[in-house]
Amino acid sequence: MNPISRLGRSSTAGSLTMALVYGFIAMIVLTFLLSIILAVTDMDESKLNVYTFSIHAASMLIGGFSAGRRVESKGWYYGGISGLLYSLIIVLIAFLAYDAGINSSSLLLIAITAGMGMLGGMFGVNIKK
Question: Which residues cross the membrane (predicted)?
Fold first, then answer.
């Protein structure tokens, strides 16, 4: 077997990296779809905060699933770590780009992404190949 293909499957760093990659790709796609839906329909933009938390939750469910699938054990642990890393990157970008500090909204984001990452990791470990 090719050693490069084995790296992403058993390595902790490789599984967390791929979880973040899948999470950010899912976030980009879902954000793009939401923007199209908001432009075409008469959806209420006052609930934009709920929509963004839903996008982050779905993104980390996918990322946690990827992490759990790759490590094949302790999916909740690696999914939770990937959720924490994902949210810390988002909070760091918000701080650097918009000068947004840590508030209750960012703490809620951290809790949601860690929880959804854990859930996705549990699903990823238990899916039969």
Answer: 12-38, 50-68, 75-98, 104-125
